[in-house]
Amino acid sequence: MRKWWVAISTIYEVAQKAGVSVATASRALNDSGYVSRESRDRVLAAAKALDYHINVNARSLTSGKTYTIALVLPDVTNPFFPAVARGVEDYASDNGYCVILCNTDGNARKESDYVRMLRSRKVDGVIFAVSVASKSRVSALTDDGIAVVLVDRDLGDSCDIVKTDNIAGALLATNHLIGLGHTSIAFISGPMSLATSQERFRGYHDALVSGGVSFDERLVVEGDFRMKSGYEAMRDLLRKPCQFTAVFAANDLMAVGAMTALEESGFHVPTDVAVMGYDDIDIASVTRPRLSTVAQPKYEMGWIAAETVIRRMCNPKASRMEELLQPMLVVRDSTVERRGASV
Ligand code: RIB
C-alpha cells in the first residue's frame, strides 16, 4: 500500500534555508525579541518557501502560553454581542491571539461547562459577559491564574471591567422623554439579577425624581432582554389600570417587541405612546418608526476589553483596571412631544 508522506518542515529547516540560527528563526517567527530586518525577511521567505506553520502545541509547551482568548457571551443572537465580539477579535488578532467564542444562552450550567473547558485548555485570558450569579465561576478561572476581564456586566468584585455608564445612559433616555413633556413613563427592565439592569433602573428612577415626575412601580415590568419579553411586558402594561404616554425599554430588542404590541393593540407609535430603546443596534435605524435609543460604544467596548485582558496577562499584579465608556443619545422617530391622552 502506498504510503503518503506529508513533508512537514521544521524550524530547523527554515533556519538552515535562511542561513540563521534556530534561535533567530524562532524569534522572527514568534515575533519575540530582536531580529534584524534582513534576517527577519530571510526567515519569513524561507518559511513561506517551505510552507512552514508554527506548531502551536509545541509553542505552548515551551512558552506556557496558548495565545488564545475566550470570549464568553450570554446570547449571540442579540446583535449587541457580535458588535462587541468584532472589537475583541480585531484587537486580539492584531496582537497574535486567536479568539474562541462561548455562547452560554444565559444558562448557569452551560456557563459552568464552558469554565471547566477553558480551565482544562489553559486559555491565556477570558473576556466574560456574565449572565447569572457568576462570581464563583469567574473566581475558578482567576484562581487558575487565567486573566479575566468582565465586559458590559459588572459583578462588583475585584475583576477588571469594561462597560458603559448605564446610569448615565438611562438618565439620557428618561430625561429625553421628560423633555418632550411626558409625565407618565413606563420602564421595561432587563433581568434585574444583572448589574446593567439595576443601573438602568436607577437612572430611570433618578431622572423621574429629579424631573419632578411621579414614580409608579406599577409602570415597571421586568423583561429578559429578548424581543418577545418586550412584547409581553407591553401587553402586561396595557392591562394595568395605570396610564402612560411613553415607555423606556432597557434594550432595543425589547423596545421593538413593545412597539409591535402597541401597534397590535391599536395604539400609534409615537403619537399615542413614545418608545425609547437602549444599545443602538442596527435594527434601531430601520424599524418603522425608526427607534430613538441610547448608543453604547459596542466595538470600542470589545476592543478595549481585549487590550485590557492582554495587559492583565502581561502584568498579573497590576491594580484593577476599570474602563467606563460614555453612552450617547440617538433621537429618531419613535419619540415625539406628548400629544394624546395617556393609554
Ligand atoms: O441587549 C443586550 C443587553 O445586555 C445590552 O443592553 C447589553 O448592555 C447587555 O447587558
Tags for this entry?
alpha/beta, disordered N terminus, 343 residues, 434 Repressor (Amino-terminal Domain), Rossmann fold, 43% helix, six-stranded parallel β-sheet, four-stranded parallel β-sheet, 3 domains, binds alpha-D-ribofuranose
Structural commentary:
The chain is α/β, with parallel strands linked by helices and 343 residues long. The chain folds into 3 domains: 5-62, Orthogonal Bundle (434 Repressor (Amino-terminal Domain)); 65-163 and 298-324, Rossmann fold (3-Layer(aba) Sandwich), CATH 3.40.50.2300; 166-296, Rossmann fold (3-Layer(aba) Sandwich), CATH 3.40.50.2300. Helices cover 43% and strands 15% of the residues. It has 12 helices and 12 strands. It has a 6-stranded parallel sheet with strand order 2-1-3-4-5-11, with helices on both faces. The chain has a 4-stranded parallel sheet with strand order 7-6-8-9, with helices on both faces. Strand 1, helix 5 and strand 2 form a beta-alpha-beta unit. 45% of the residues are buried. Residues 78, 80, 152-153, 196, 225, 251, 253, 278-279 line the site of alpha-D-ribofuranose (RIB).
